[in-house]
Amino acid sequence: MPIMAPETATGESSARGAARSRWPVIAFVSTMAGLALGAATNVGQGILPGATNQFVNSAAVWSLAPFAAGALLPHRRRAAVAAATAAVCGEVVGYYAYAELARGGMGALHYTLLWLVVALVAGPVFGTAGAWWREGPGRRATAGGAVLGGVFGGEGMHYLLVLGHATEGVLFLVATLLVPLLLGRDTRERVRGLLALLPATALLYAFGLAQDLVMT
Fold it and tell me: What is the DSSP string of 16-71?
């Protein structure tokens, strides 16, 4: 049985202790950030033109908040998932609350409830991805970054193949390639991240198609 070096054990214990002490603050900040981002999305939809409007109205952009929440809580998986889920639920509530209060109504209630169900799935997925990336390097770090990049890729493929919006699709695919390049800690991790984008993009594209079927 391998023995962990004392300094390694001490370092991990310190990281876990720090995460334990700050996770309620991170959960609160994540919720507030989610509310603000959700409301900002609704505002942006009304004022931004062309492709920039699609970036505002983007599930991929919304996934940044739960990913960041998870990344702030490495070694605390349950706390990371809770904070990330709070962030996504905050985005949904902020979006529809602004629509109700400032834009004449949020529409049918069942759409809000459906998006909250999606948030309960997306929060744990992206929170775990963020935590895995922060805990890296290694296969989990690569997988975590691929999940984030894959949601941009899936959305880009949706614009290209389903909606026929070439400009938006290309922009999202460029963002997809940037994710592992920015998150990778070294050249090897960046290359692995780029390779991992292929299955991640395919999977999240398929998830988006299934989501469309449920929403329509």
Answer: HHHHHHHHHHHHHHHHHHHHHHHHHHHHHHHH--HHHHHHHS-HHHHTHHHHHHHH
Task: Kindly state the average pLDDT of the residues 164-184.
Answer: 93
- d(CA 58, CA 83) in angstroms, rounded, equals 20
H-helix or E-strand containing 210?
Answer: helix 187-215
* Cβ contact 120:85 at 8 Å: yes
Q: Which among 96, 111, 134 has a CA at the least distance from the CA of 15?
A: 134
- Amino acid 163 reads L
Question: How is residue 28 written in tokens?
Answer: 């609160």
Q: Which of 13-22, 28-37, 203-212 has the highest mean pLDDT?
A: 28-37
* Residue 74 three-state SS: coil
In angstroms, what is the C-alpha Rg of the chain?
18
Q: Round the average pLDDT of the chain to a whole number and report it.
A: 85
